[in-house]
Design a protein that fits this description.
Layout (H helix, E strand, L loop, with lengths): L11 H4 L6 E8 L3 H13 L20 E7 L1 H6 L4 H4 L4 H9 L1 H4 L22 E7 L3 H11 L3 E9 L59 H4 L3 E10 L1 H16 L4 H4 L14 H14 L41 H5 L18 E7 L14 E8 L2 H13 L25 E5 L5 E5 L5 E11 L2 H8 L4
Antiparallel strand pairs: 1-3, 1-4, 2-3, 5-7, 5-10, 6-7, 8-9
Helix pairs in contact: 2-14, 9-11
Length: 467
């Protein structure tokens, strides 16, 4: 490493998951510069009981009641008085911001920024996004009140964990995260994938690409040990997804090769009590995602969702290869091709992102559909937007450039799809595929921002700015 890693210098939400029940995101505007700087100083030092303390990456003996962190936008750095020569040292993607990068991210049509609600319709006012993770709801209002004394709160977004760690599409989530060198994470102990260098997410450390470290914004005190985060509000059309699974299963009931996809008489291996239609729709769901809805990887268990393996590492320890049963176009394989065959060989494991997310909106009942918005509050953390987040979103999710068999198709779950052009190939045990068509866009962007997650030293630096 370039310098010894100090876990007390790194914000805690970068390298660790908090596993709290709830989160509240506060979208903040700097309206009183002196008050904002005082808040940052107190939050970094943790000396004022009336200011929430920034949570560090260091492991704690006793979990705190509140985990508090901040991300600063380019406009936020300007509002805090960051000198122009320092602002010029930040990468172009961050300077331009998420709205300006919309086409690269697939944010067009119904996802276009002109449809984003307040406050993301005024990006020049979005200066800081603060996250408050708690298990007890009353802490959220207390911390929001503390923050509101120093900033103008222009937006609030609440998230929560759904039962069984699932998302509204019914899949178990939060299964696989990068495993980092020099970081002792008990939750990753059973994972046998290669350990990623800290430079995957932190500025100032080596990356997987030989001899390459991403540039550090200057001064070093500001940039070192920082990371970049794409904060995204993603509406999920859970009812539309379930409706499409019905449509796909209807088609497969009469398809001549459906017996190869699911051997008649084995429906109970997909789910107890499922008829053939119900089992086929779950096979489609599993291949589109790359996991069964209970979390089992399709790669290691292509013919059965049940029984679910309880072996340590059963959900994470697998790889892809030529002839894999998991489709090359599956969501999980697109976002993390692991060591599997891809055209861009150097890109294996170099585009890893830390994902933090919680659901928002009311519970979803497929039997009683409604029109209420629900979805995911997502954070996608890395050391470089262009080489990681944007490359995954554009090259892999919405172009399929990593594999010639999926080039020209979009990710079936979160891609920028339309019924007129969408397609996805289901794999069969032997040779051949069954092509699905006509599915709509299931995930729509409803707002977001590119933020910089400063180190503790950087937060103190920002608090000491003058002018």
């Amino acid at each position: 490493m370039s310098e010894a890693y100090d876990s007390n210098e790194v914000q805690g939400n970068i390298l660790r998951g908090y596993r709290n029940n709830m989160v509240r995101y506060l979208i903040l505007e700097v309206s009183d510069l002196a008050a904002a700087r005082r808040f940052l100083a107190a939050s970094a030092d943790g000396t004022d009981a009336d200011v929430p303390k920034i949570t560090r990456s260091a492991w704690w003996a006793t979990k705190p009641d509140v985990c508090f962190n901040i991300g600063v936008t380019y406009e936020g750095l300007r509002a805090l008085g960051t000198p122009g020569e320092c602002l010029d040292s930040f990468p172009t993607e961050f300077v331009e911001g998420m709205r300006a990068r919309a086409m690269k991210l697939g944010d067009f049509g119904s996802s276009a920024p002109e449809h984003w609600p307040a406050p993301f319709d005024q990006p020049e006012r979005v200066h800081i996004i603060a996250s408050i993770y708690v298990d007890e709801e009353h802490h959220l209002d207390v911390v929001q009140g503390q923050v509101a004394r120093a900033f103008n709160v222009i937006g609030v977004r609440n998230g929560r964990n759904l039962a069984d760690q699932k998302v509204f599409f019914g899949y178990q989530d939060s299964i696989s995260q990068p495993k980092f060198r020099h970081v002792d994470d008990p939750e990753q102990a059973a994972a046998n994938e290669p350990a990623d260098p800290l430079g995957t997410v932190l500025l100032g450390y080596p990356t997987r690409m030989q001899g390459l470290e991403f540039s550090i914004p200057q001064p070093r005190e500001l940039g070192f040990n920082g990371a970049f985060n794409a904060f995204r509000i993603l509406a999920q059309d859970a009812q539309g997804f379930e409706t499409y699974l019905d449509k796909a299963a209807d088609m497969l009931l009469t398809h001549p090769r459906a017996k190869d996809l699911l051997v008649p008489g084995t429906e109970d291996r997909i789910g107890a009590g499922l008829d053939r239609h119900g089992a086929l729709r779950e096979v489609v769901a599993a291949q589109m995602c790359g996991r069964w809805r209970n979390g089992m990887p399709y790669e290691t268990s292509p013919d059965a969702q049940w029984p679910k393996s309880e072996e340590p590492g059963a959900l994470t320890n697998f790889d892809y290869h030529h002839g894999s049963r998991c489709p090359a176009g599956a969501h999980m394989r697109r976002v993390n091709p692991r060591g599997g065959p891809i055209v861009q060989r150097i890109a294996n494991y170099t585009r890893r992102l830390v994902r933090r997310g919680m659901s928002y909106g009311p519970d979803f009942d497929p039997a009683n559909p409604d029109s209420q918005e629900r979805g995911l509050l997502g954070n996608f953390i890395g050391a470089n937007f262009g080489a990681q987040f944007e490359a995954v979103m554009c090259d892999w999710l919405n172009l399929g450039l990593q594999d010639p068999t999926v080039t020209g198709s979009n990710d079936p779950l979160i891609g920028a799809n339309s019924p007129e052009t969408s397609w996805f190939d289901l794999t069969l045990p032997k040779e051949g595929t069954i092509r699905l068509r006509g599915f709509p866009r299931f995930v729509t962007t409803r707002g977001g921002a590119y933020t910089f997650l400063p180190s503790l030293s950087a937060i103190r630096y920002l608090s000491r700015l003058t002018g």
